[in-house]
């Protein structure tokens, strides 16, 4: 169901766009970190590679502590469908595989491979561009994408190879260069510095999903990036690269969260992803620009995903900038590379201000999902106590999923999980629009996150209770059976003892065992 | 490093954006929006309304202070959030301009202490506090509450501020004036009596108490409220659903009545600009705590209010029905909200299997 | 006339009730199942009954109050109150305090274990694996934290203790914004 007439024709600004309901206009702060330059981050002394940097099963290590690894060498793999391998981002020695604090609000530690870099940054000798990429089949491309450890770099880190194997035909491939969160400029920087690689990667992905049309969406506050992308598409079209005339670069109105997958699909196609479903169900696949650049690197350079562009920004960092950073670099190293922190009254956030996660401290590694380190004033993490809800309903006006945050708030406080289901708590994308507009300054998103995890924990507890009940019943049944058998044995022994004395039952009326025993007794007596 | 220890003390989640909205800002905007109406009211009816506002505000804040102390709530946060002031002003605007001082004070008591704090305070009250106060006053003191000041255009000797204060506090009038000379029935009350006596509407609205389309003076005050209300919608403090629904349904049902029997039922314009229609539509029915919260729910709630206003005015026992209409429709809000949950993004029958 | 009508009505309803009593008869007492479904199945015995099912039967028979179960906590008391249409009571402190914080599981120090099988025999959900004179170990996935296996049952000092269960990031729960740790000075 591709939009008729849009494939095969470039319509500058003429593509019909829809609006998604809700959303807020935010101060962008996009000039704090300059997207025109990407600095090379200094090579860190140690790299910490979590074995799970993606949605799905963690990868299992395939190297031993003490072994030397090259840049790009495989460190861990998994055979699960939804999973991705982990590669060494630089050459050095694996000094440990141990638990390390994760860049997550909880501060929980999970397994990491720790590499002490040797400074040479040597690529593995086997890494080379794939021969004749133009002739690779969809399956081969998908296998390569998986081998390269590519996951969605927009933040959801869904293993891309699994995403590119949808169970139905895909009509539209969308490239998400919207970057709607304030402060973040890494995608902008990528689009300005490597537009051709992005488009070539997109064409590879198009071969995998066989979509009729491709749309590259960029927010209209990035005119430079839009121009560069359009030039790159034009250049490829002029040189006759296959598939490039089905690509269209579209500027979407700046409004948070226009970069959310569901919202972007609505804006570009007018269709809504079904509740609880995924975009492939309506024939659409959506990828981040960074992901397709990684696909380009994997195929045309033969390199796995070991680095990404990351913005280090915020009012509390001295020299905000965009960096090309190796996965596994400690965040503290990046803060130092950006000139250091202005004062102690700061808070570290991985991601943007609307949906980012607070980091417990700087000794956590950069992971594949790290698009930004935002160093904000500590006061922002310290919410003022909330006033009571005055039921103004502004939250519902801005919700991009058209939910009723007010009702979700009341029911979350009351732990009424059935009512939360009826108000579609599971559909909440935790974008934060409701909390930003609330006059009572209620931390709505935290209530929803709390309710979601409480509900999941409750369901887990219920399942555990059911399991315990079953185990207890089996145990009681077993004990009862053992007791019964013991009783039977006792009865038999007692009967045997009685059978040795005078038996009152006439012998021809007794049971066979008794007769046998009586016969034995007679022999003994006799 | 500062974060490691403080994580456990100051746990919070995104969004990390400096807060710009506040309850105080919302309440202040509502007060600003009332200014045109209040100014016109004072110009056209005298100082009475100003005195009432002052008395109601002072006593509301006093009662609020007492209740906050009794309930152990933080004073600075709640005393100055503006909600008590808004309640006080709305209550004062509903009262007759020339009343004894204890009427607004008693109204403030019912509104703040009973209708607001005894139900749980800000955000938890089940009934609109200002209207609850007004309704209790109306039922308890019907005589005092039904004697309204004449529009200044008709009054022979308008009272000065000092004279108004003296009247309010001590019930003393300047020697030359009698109470009857200053007061008269409201236009709606007059209309109801006349229609009850058998006279037609057309004849009745010719009386000097009526202005161009509705009550003399009051029509301009209502225009002032309309202006303020539209500004309130523009500032996104209230949504358009409730005011439009109230006014549209009131206009429709009074229009039907007017078409069917113009002798008995007044014109829609009179209904829209007479009495407390505009004040009710933009400021009272939209009280967020007691109104519906879903878009369709708001329209149903507003439409119900409009119908009830007309019904009470045409067939009910009171000349103006805004307060009761709002209170009664407020009762239906939880039910209406439950059945008007908006369609969530992507909620349609899925094609194929789930 | 009214006598006839009332008599007829009585006959009709009586026949209907009798039919329903036979046609819709339910075996056993389904209330016990419903109560048992609400209880947390820790099988610890803190309520004074040897397991959750006997406690459920006691509640159904009106022999026990609904506030005797510490692992269920106040939420459990309220759930029982809702189910039975009674008023919720505060948790009986004589039985212990409600569990607060992470789930606790038993952990055996394998160096100290003498293989006496006492803990294996008492565990109500068979969560301890091992054999006589062989090392025992607690299977975390099944341990309900009932604490029946702790000393004085276990004859060895410091062999079996309760320790908090580790949570992974996937199982981590967001704290409520109203939790004390979240309140901060303005």
What features would you highlight for this structure?
heterotrimer, A: 526 residues, alpha/beta, Rossmann fold, four-stranded antiparallel sheet, 14 helices, 17 strands, 34% helix, 17% strand, globular, disordered N terminus, B: 354 residues, mainly alpha, two-stranded antiparallel ribbon, 18 helices, 2 strands, disordered C terminus
Describe this structure in words.
The complex is a heterotrimer of chains A (about 525), B (about 350) and C (about 190). Chain A is built from 14 helices and 17 strands. Chain A has about 525 residues and is an alpha/beta fold. Among the domains of chain A are: about 140-300, Rossmann fold; about 385-490, no CATH class. In chain A, the strands form four sheets. Chain A has a six-stranded mixed beta sheet with strand order 1-14-13-17-15-16, sandwiched between helices. In chain A, strands 2-8-7-4 form a four-stranded antiparallel beta sheet, with no helix packed on it. Chain A has a four-stranded parallel beta sheet with strand order 11-10-9-12, with helices on both faces. In chain A, a hairpin with an 8-residue loop joins strand 5 and strand 6 (about 85). The termini of chain A are far apart. Residues about 1-10 of chain A have low confidence and may be disordered. Chain B has about 350 residues and is an all-alpha fold. Chain B is about 60% helix and about 0% strand. Chain B is built from 18 helices and two strands. A two-stranded antiparallel sheet of chain B has the order 1-2. In chain B, helix 13 packs parallel to helix 16 (about 275-285). Chain C has about 190 residues and is mainly α. Chain C folds into two domains: about 30-95, Orthogonal Bundle (3-methyladenine DNA Glycosylase II, Chain A, domain 3), CATH 1.10.15; about 100-165, Alpha-Beta Plaits, CATH 3.30.70. Helices cover about 30% and strands about 10% of the residues of chain C. Chain C has helices spanning about 1-25, 30-40, 50-60, 75-85, 120, and strands at about 105-110, 130, 135-140, 160-165. In chain C, helix 2 packs across helix 3 (about 50-60). Chain C is elongated, with a radius of gyration of 24 Å. Mean pLDDT of chain C is about 85; it is low at about 180-185. Chains A and B meet through strand 15, strand 16, helix 9, helix 12 and helix 13 of A and helix 1 and helix 2 of B.
């Amino acid at each position: 169901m591709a939009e008729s007439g849009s494939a095969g024709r470039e319509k500058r600004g003429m593509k019909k766009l829809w609006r998604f309901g809700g959303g807020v206009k935010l101060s962008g702060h996009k000039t704090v970190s300059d997207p025109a330059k990407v600095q090379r981050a200094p090579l860190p002394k140690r790299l910490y590679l979590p074995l799970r940097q993606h949605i799905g099963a963690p990868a299992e290590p395939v190297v031993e502590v003490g072994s030397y690894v090259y840049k790009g060498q495989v460190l861990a793999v998994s055979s699960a469908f939804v999973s991705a391998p982990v590669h060494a981002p630089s050459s050095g020695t694996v000094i440990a595989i141990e638990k390390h604090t994760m860049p997550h609000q909880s501060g929980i530690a999970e397994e990491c491979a720790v590499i002490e870099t040797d400074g040479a940054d040597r690529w593995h000798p086997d890494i080379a561009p794939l021969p004749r990429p133009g002739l690779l089949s969809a399956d081969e491309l998908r296998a390569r994408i998986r081998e390269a450890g590519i996951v969605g770099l927009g933040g959801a880190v869904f293993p891309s190879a699994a995403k590119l194997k949808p169970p139905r035909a895909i009509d539209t491939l969308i490239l998400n260069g919207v970057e709607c969160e304030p402060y973040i400029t890494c995608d902008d920087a990528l689009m300005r510095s490597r537009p051709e690689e992005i488009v070539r990667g997109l064409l590879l992905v198009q071969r995998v999903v066989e979509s009729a049309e491709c749309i590259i969406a960029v927010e209209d506050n990035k005119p430079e990036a839009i121009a560069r992308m359009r030039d790159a598409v034009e250049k490829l079209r002029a040189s006759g690269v296959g598939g490039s005339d089905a690509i269209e670069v579209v500027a979407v109105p700046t409004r948070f969260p226009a970069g959310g997958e569901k919202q972007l699909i609505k804006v570009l196609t007018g269709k809504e992803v079904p509740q609880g479903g995924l975009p492939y169900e309506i024939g659409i696949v959506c990828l981040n620009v960074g992901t397709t650049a990684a696909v380009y690197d994997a195929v045309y350079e033969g390199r796995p995903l070991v680095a990404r562009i990351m913005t280090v920004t915020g009012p509390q960092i001295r020299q905000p900038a965009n960096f090309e950073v190796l996965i596994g670099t400690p965040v503290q190293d990046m803060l130092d590379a950006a000139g250091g922190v202005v004062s102690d009254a700061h808070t570290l956030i991985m991601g943007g201000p609307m949906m980012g996660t607070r980091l417990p401290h700087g000794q956590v590694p950069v992971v594949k999902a790290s698009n930004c380190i935002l160093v904000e004033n500590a006061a922002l993490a310290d919410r003022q106590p909330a006033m009571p809800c005055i039921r103004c309903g502004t939250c519902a006006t801005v919700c991009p999923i058209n939910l009723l945050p007010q009702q979700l708030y009341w029911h979350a406080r009351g732990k009424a999980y059935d009512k939360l289901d009826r108000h579609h708590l599971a559909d909440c994308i935790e974008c934060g629009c409701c909390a930003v507009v609330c006059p009572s300054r209620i931390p709505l998103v935290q209530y929803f996150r709390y309710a979601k995890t409480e509900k999941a924990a409750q369901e887990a507890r219920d399942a555990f209770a059911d399991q315990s009940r079953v185990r207890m019943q089996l145990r009681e049944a077993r004990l009862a059976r053992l007791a019964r058998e013991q009783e039977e044995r006792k009865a038999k022994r007692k009967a045997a003892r009685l059978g040795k004395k005078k038996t009152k039952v006439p012998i021809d009326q007794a049971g066979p065992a008794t007769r046998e025993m009586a016969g034995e007794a007679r022999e003994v007596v006799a | 490093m500062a974060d490691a220890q403080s994580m456990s003390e100051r746990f919070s989640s995104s969004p990390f954006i400096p807060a710009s909205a506040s309850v105080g800002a919302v309440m202040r905007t509502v007060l600003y929006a009332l200014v045109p109406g209040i100014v016109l009211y004072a110009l056209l009816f005298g100082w009475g309304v100003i005195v009432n506002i002052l008395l109601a505000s002072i006593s509301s804040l006093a009662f609020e202070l007492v209740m906050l102390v009794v309930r152990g709530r933080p004073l600075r946060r709640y005393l100055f959030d503006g909600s008590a002031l808004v309640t006080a002003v709305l209550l004062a605007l509903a009262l007759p301009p020339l009343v004894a001082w204890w009427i607004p004070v008693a109204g403030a008591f019912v509104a703040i202490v009973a209708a607001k704090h005894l139900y749980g305070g800000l955000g938890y009250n089940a009934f609109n506090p200002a209207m609850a106060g007004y309704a209790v006053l109306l039922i308890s003191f019907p005589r005092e509450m039904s004697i309204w000041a004449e529009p200044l255009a008709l009054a022979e000797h308008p009272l000065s501020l000092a004279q108004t204060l003296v009247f309010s506090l001590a019930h003393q009038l300047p020697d030359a004036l009698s109470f009857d000379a200053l007061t008269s029935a409201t236009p709606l009350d007059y209309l109801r009596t006349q229609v009850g006596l058998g006279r037609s509407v057309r004849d009745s609205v010719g009386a000097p108490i009526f202005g161009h389309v509705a009550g003399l003076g009051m029509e301009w005050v209502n225009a002032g409220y309309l202006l303020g209300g539209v500004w309130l919608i523009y500032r996104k403090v209230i949504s358009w659903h409730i005011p439009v629904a109230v006014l549209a349904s009131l206009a429709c049902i009074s229009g039907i009545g007017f078409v069917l029997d113009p002798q008995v039922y007044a014109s829609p314009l009179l209904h829209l600009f007479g009495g407390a229609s505009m004040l009710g539509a933009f400021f009272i029915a939209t009280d967020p705590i007691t109104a519906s919260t879903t878009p369709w729910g708001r329209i149903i709630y507003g439409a119900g209010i409009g119908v009830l206003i007309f019904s009470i005015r045409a067939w009910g026992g009171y000349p103006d029905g805004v307060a009761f209409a709002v209170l009664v429709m407020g009762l239906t809000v939880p039910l209406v909200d439950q059945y008007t949950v908006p369609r969530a993004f992507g909620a349609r029958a899925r094609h194929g299997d789930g | 006339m009214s006598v006839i009508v009332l008599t007829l009505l009585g006959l009709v309803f009586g026949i209907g009730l009798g039919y329903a009593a036979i046609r819709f008869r339910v075996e056993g007492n389904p209330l016990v199942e419903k109560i048992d479904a609400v209880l947390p199945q820790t099988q610890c015995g803190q309520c004074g009954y040897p397991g959750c099912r006997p406690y459920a039967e006691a509640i159904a028979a009106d022999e026990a109050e609904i506030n005797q179960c510490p692992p269920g906590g106040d939420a459990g008391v309220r759930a029982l109150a809702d189910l039975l249409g009674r008023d919720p009571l505060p948790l009986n402190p004589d039985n212990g305090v409600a569990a607060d914080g992470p789930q606790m599981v038993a952990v055996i120090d394998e160096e100290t274990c003498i293989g006496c099988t006492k803990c294996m025999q008492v565990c109500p959900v068979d969560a301890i694996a091992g054999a006589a004179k062989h090392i025992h170990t607690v299977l975390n996935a099944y341990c309900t934290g009932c604490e029946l296996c702790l000393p004085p049952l276990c004859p060895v000092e410091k062999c079996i203790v309760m320790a908090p269960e580790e949570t992974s990031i996937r199982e981590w729960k967001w704290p409520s914004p109203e939790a004390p740790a979240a309140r901060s000075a303005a």
